[in-house]
């Protein structure tokens, strides 16, 4: 591994020197192929897979978070373990959250020290677009993500501009975001800063942990449920050079489970998780002969501290734990047109990550407190245009991943066929592998036990979609219907082995089938978007009591609708409906969430060319905090971590 790092460093020095001719302009790093699905705005010819493109600017001022934007995308289910602002991860087409690879500006955000990327920590006000790749994944992303990748592209420094967003909401929520772009040192410079937070102290009916007895129910206020976030992003580009620096700091209260708690006499503040993260990257694009290339080097650090001064959580004396991670990486990408029908792309990445653990458990029990991991990711892709008209695109992709000396080869094939005017077929098939991360292998030195003998996950997925885009009765219409299926072997799932400890284990097999429907209808002044996902995710472990049972946190039904109406040139009204149904919490199908339907509404008013006022209310009918846990037998009870219900918010965006 060290020899490879030395070799790549020497290669970097060589190509960044006089041998490489720089390209004329680079604004993002690394250069990532931007694609979109049937309902996106980008060129569909570039992607054979199903891709959703989300643009936060379209709902700016509505207090949407990144998880909420993703939850509205077809095929995506967001898992909130502790309510709004709490630990939040994503599942795509029934995947585990660890199988979803998350990239920010082309840099992998998944850390070996965590089960998955906590989406609640990623700010949304500086995001230009979010790309959700379901199924086939372009070679520019070295980690396959078992067929699911979320790529977050932040705004680029393109011109001199400034804007300020300020907003307030119920339960002490606030949000402010500053953006400024200007020329600097012969290039373009961008600065963004976001500050947000909430007290989270909403009221609700607590059943006191006794769902059979309503006599002891009481009105409660959610305690120790707040959060604060601070984020800064700096980007600079000039000709073929690009640099990026980001810093995130987040403090999150860790509330107790709600039933029977939230009594001021029993709780004190102070149980919290503090996370600080920063990363820096420097890249250069150049040309060697006919090959366009891009080189990037970067460093990332994260420091997480857990404080439990009153021994509330777990009650086993885990008062303080600290997890420090740092990663260095070097990546190289290249592309080459071959004739008129082939376009070759290569991506390579080498990285080393270290994790240091400190705290009460390691101090009392000893054991390993320092971990490291070396990774090499290589991928090669060819985009093949077939036929004289070029209506058929085939994209074969090969990936080779090496983790600490163990390697596996993955591959996929995507096809995009424009077989008639306005009609398109998209299909893909692939085999994937994923190595268990350090968190899954060695736990958290607290309540998650080590499982060092975990095997790599492997599986296959295929999908087939029919898309139509055109005008129907003077309505601009876009419709996409996709069937998908995945089969996984040695799937890694989290299992509670007793009330104190949990552990990650391989289950033998899982099968997931689903259907995605995504539509959009536009006829001025109306704009209607609808999406629906049906999915059945089953444990197929032979001779297991869980065989043929539903996998947890994979809802069978999920739907989203948004209707916007331009009342005038300056005033837009909008309404949303979100539905989630039949979602189990455990692997034995003994308990599930009650079905939930949430309605949002609001208005966007352009006061003038530079000022936009947004007023809205989420969960108009106050249904979220009424969500219950429904056992297979017995009475429904209060959700462990209830959600806040009806929430008003107002914001002002000022461009100057």
Describe the structure.
With 656 residues, the chain is mainly beta. It has a single domain (2-655), classed as Beta Barrel (Maltoporin, Chain A). It is 5% helix and 56% strand. The protein contains four helices and 37 strands. It has a 22-stranded antiparallel β-barrel. A five-stranded mixed sheet has the order 2-7-8-5-6, with no helix packed on it. It is globular. The N and C termini lie far apart (50 Å). The model is unreliable at 2-43 (pLDDT under 50).
List the keywords.
Maltoporin, Chain A, 5% helix, disordered N terminus, 22-stranded antiparallel beta barrel, mainly beta, 656 residues, 37 strands
Radius of gyration: 25 Å
Separation of the first and last Cα atoms = 50 Å
Instruction: Please identify which CATH superfamily we are dealing with.
Output: TonB-dependent receptor, beta-barrel domain
Figure out the total of helices.
4
CATH topology: Maltoporin, Chain A
Could you tell me the number of beta strands? 37
- Please summarize the sheet with the most strands: 22 strands, antiparallel, barrel
Number of domains: 1
């Amino acid at each position: 591994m060290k020899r490879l790092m030395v070799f790549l460093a020497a290669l970097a020095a060589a190509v960044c020197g006089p041998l490489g001719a720089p390209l004329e302009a680079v604004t993002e790093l690394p250069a990532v192929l931007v694609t979109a699905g049937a309902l996106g705005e980008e060129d569909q010819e570039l992607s054979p897979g199903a891709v959703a493109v989300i643009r936060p600017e379209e709902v700016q001022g509505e207090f949407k978070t990144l998880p909420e934007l993703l939850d509205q995308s077809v095929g995506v289910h967001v898992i909130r373990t502790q309510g709004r602002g709490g630990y939040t991860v994503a599942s795509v087409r029934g995947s585990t959250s660890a199988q979803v690879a998350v990239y920010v500006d082309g840099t992998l955000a998944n850390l070996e020290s965590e089960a998955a990327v906590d989406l609640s920590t990623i700010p949304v006000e500086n995001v230009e677009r979010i790309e959700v790749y379901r199924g086939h994944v372009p070679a520019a992303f070295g980690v396959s993500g078992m067929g699911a990748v979320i790529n977050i592209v932040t705004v680029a420094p393109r011109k001199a501009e400034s804007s300020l967003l300020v907003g307030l909401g119920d339960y002490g929520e606030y949000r402010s975001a500053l953006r400024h772009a200007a020329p600097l040192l012969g290039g373009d410079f961008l600065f963004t800063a976001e500050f947000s937070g909430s007290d989270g102290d909403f009221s609700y009916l607590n059943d006191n942990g006794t769902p059979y007895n309503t006599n002891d129910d009481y009105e409660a206020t959610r305690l120790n449920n707040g959060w604060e976030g601070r984020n800064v992003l700096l980007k600079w580009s000039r000709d073929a050079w690009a640099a990026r620096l980001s810093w995130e700091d987040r403090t999150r209260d860790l509330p107790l489970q709600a039933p029977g708690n939230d009594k001021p006499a029993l709780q004190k503040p102070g149980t919290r998780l503090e996370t600080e993260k920063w990363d820096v990257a420097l890249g250069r694009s150049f040309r060697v002969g006919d090959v366009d290339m891009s080189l990037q080097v970067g460093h990332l650090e994260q420091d997480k501290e857990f404080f439990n001064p009153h021994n509330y959580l777990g009650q086993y004396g885990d008062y303080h734990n600290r997890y420090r991670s740092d990663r260095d990486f070097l990546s190289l990408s290249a592309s080459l047109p071959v004739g008129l029908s082939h376009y070759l792309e290569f991506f390579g990445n080498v990285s080393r990550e270290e994790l240091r653990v400190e705290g009460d458990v390691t101090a009392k029990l000893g054991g390993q407190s320092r971990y490291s991991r070396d990774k090499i990711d290589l991928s090669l892709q060819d985009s093949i245009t077939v036929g004289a008209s070029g209506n058929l695109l085939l994209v074969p992709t090969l990936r080779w991943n090496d983790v600490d000396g163990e390697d596996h080869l993955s591959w996929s094939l995507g096809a995009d066929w424009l077989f008639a005017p306005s009609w398109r077929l998209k299909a893909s098939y692939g085999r994937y592998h994923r190595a268990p991360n350090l968190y899954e292998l060695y736990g958290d030195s607290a309540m998650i036990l080590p499982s060092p003998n975990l095997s790599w996950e492997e599986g296959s997925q295929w999908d087939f979609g029919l898309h139509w885009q055109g005008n129907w009765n003077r309505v601009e219409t876009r419709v996409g219907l996709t069937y998908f299926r995945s089969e996984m072997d040695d799937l890694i799932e989290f299992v509670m082995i007793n009330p104190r400890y949990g552990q990650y284990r391989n289950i033998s097999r899982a099968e997931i089938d689903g259907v995605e429907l995504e539509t959009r209808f536009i006829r001025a002044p109306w704009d209607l978007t609808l999406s629906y996902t049906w999915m059945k995710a089953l444990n197929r472990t032979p001779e297991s009591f869980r065989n043929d049972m539903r996998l947890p946190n994979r809802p069978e039904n999920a739907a989203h609708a948004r209707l916007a109406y331009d009342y005038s040139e300056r005033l837009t009204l909008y309404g949303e409906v979100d539905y989630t149904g039949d979602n189990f919490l455990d692997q034995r199908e003994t308990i599930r969430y009650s079905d939930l339907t949430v309605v949002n509404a609001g208005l966007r008013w352009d006061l003038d060319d530079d000022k936009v006022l947004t007023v809205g209310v989420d969960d108009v009918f106050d249904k979220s905090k009424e969500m219950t846990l429904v056992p297979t037998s017995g009475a429904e009870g209060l959700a462990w971590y209830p959600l806040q219900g009806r929430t008003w918010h107002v914001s002002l965006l000022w461009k100057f």
